[in-house]
């Protein structure tokens, strides 16, 4: 049985390839200082577990334990978009599918 503490928090999740793309593009900018990196959109942990359940065929149970930190968090990517005219190429689901398939192939190659 797969369990998580709580599926209610919402966060700004970004696919690693999109993050890497933004960082590589930022290297060509003259900007110095902090830049928020994210998608600018919140997704609930519940959304992620639902997608992973479909991909894996495994049930993920929320224990509904209290968690620390804000229950909702997203980043303002206005500066990022202004600096490099960037938008993520992958939706949350596309990123999870790609990640799941990669991790599944690693496991099969052992």
Q: What does it look like?
A:
The structure is a single chain. This protein is mainly α. 44% of the residues lie in helices and 9% in strands. The protein contains four helices and four strands, in the order ββαβαβαα. It is globular, with a radius of gyration of 16 Å.
Short characterization:
By secondary structure, the protein is mainly alpha-helical. Helix content is 44%, strand content 9%.
Task: Report the order of strands and helices.
Answer: EEHEHEHH
- Beta-strand segment tally: 4
Percentage of helical residues?
Answer: 40-55%
Q: What average pLDDT do the residues reach?
A: 95
Please outline the major beta sheet. Answer: 2 strands, parallel
The class by helix and strand makeup works out as mainly alpha
Computed CA radius of gyration, to the nearest angstrom: 16 Å
Question: Into which percentage range does the β-strand content fall?
Answer: 5-15%
Low-pLDDT stretches: none
Span from first to last CA?
Answer: 23 Å
Give, in spatial order, the strands making up the sheet with the most strands.
Answer: 1-4
Feature tags:
110 residues, mainly alpha, 4 helices, 44% helix
Layout: helices, strands, pairs:
Elements: E1 2-4, E2 10-11, H1 16-27, E3 43-44, H2 45-56, E4 60-62, H3 78-84, H4 92-108
Parallel strand pairs: 1-4
Antiparallel strand pairs: 2-3
